[in-house]
Amino acid sequence: MANDPIHQFHISKLIPIEVGGIDLSFTNSSLFMVATVAAASAFLYFTTGARSMVPSRGQSMAELSYEFVANMLRDSAGTHGMKFFPLVFSLFMFVLFANMLGMFPYFFTVTSQIIVTFSLAVVVIGTVILYGFYKHGLKFLGLFVPSGVPGLLVPLVVAIEVISFFSRPVSLSVRLFASMLAGHITLKVFAGFIVSLAALGPLGIATAVLPLLMTVALTGLEFLISFIQAYVFAILTCMYLNDAVHPNH
Amino acid sequence: MFVAPAFAQESTSDHQLQTELEVETHEGTGVFPPFDSTYFASQIVWLAITFGLFYLFLKKVLVPRIGGIIETRNGQIAQDLEEAARMKAEADAAVAAYEQELADAKAKANAIGQQARDAAKADAEAERKKVEAELESKLAGAEARIALIKDEAMRDVGQIAEDAASAIVQQLVGSAADKSAVAAAVKAVRS
What we know:
Chain A is mainly α. Chain A is built from 7 helices and 4 strands. The longest helix of chain B has about 130 residues, at about 40-175.
């Protein structure tokens, strides 16, 4: 059972809670959400406590992540988009810390749950839709009608645009979820090979070196993917928010 | 992330059975755990709570703080650059003022020198004129005295001529000549 690569994604109740017949138990997933938020907050809070003019190493990292996200948002959504900075910054830090915490052995990866990534994507798309209608009213629908399209093609293009708009939350959430899930399963499978081969005797132990090397390499790759997926999630959020700020572009 | 199989091998069959049972009850139909909707509500609620709190903490505390640090630093740098530019301008102005003063002093020194030279020249000129005038007056005096002496000598010459003429006349004629006639004759010759 423990050799099952899927086992790591199981959710187990830690504190059972039920409200109105709905199971809202505090699970290992909830625990790691709390841990992610606590770690990210602590990192940003304690490194910037000194507010030094010449930053310490930690403060430099906190400022670097701040400016990284700020530049990302300013480049894609302009200065008007900066009002969404807290949202994009918290999404980036949350996904990054959730992915990185997931790299610890025995830790639960929050972002490997489709419902978590989908909820985050819904927050993004919901913000885009609500802000778009609030700021531009019905003109926001102009987003679906690109300018310069011949009249006959308009219905077709609009249909395509609407489909592409509503597939955004799906692609945004599935991309992150699938990357984390696949990465962790692959790691687990290769790590399982090491043990299975080692159990076969001397020849098996010698052969087990290969999956071991593979596991080491994959671990490095997974750290890279953890960062890249957080970056991709944040930059796509910026691009979608740009539609809410400038729907006619 | 992943549980070492060694750990699993140690566990009793009881435990394994229990886990399998658990899995069965949790998974129900044995669906892939991430797609198991049993805990969807719980995950959504806990995500909303944790992420919501994180968002608020970031928005209210961390973003203003880090933004403030960066802004303060940028402001400090801009201020320092401005200060440096101001100081440079001041230094340039001081150099210009110094050069101006130097030029003024040089011009002043030239003027003083020129004045001194002019004064000295004027003094020398005056001295020269005074000396010349003195010499002139001395010359005039000397000329006057010469004329006086000459006059005296000329008058003596008349007297001598009269005496000589009366003596000659006495010798030739044998009698003393008329004094006034001799004087008239001498006067006529001399003039």
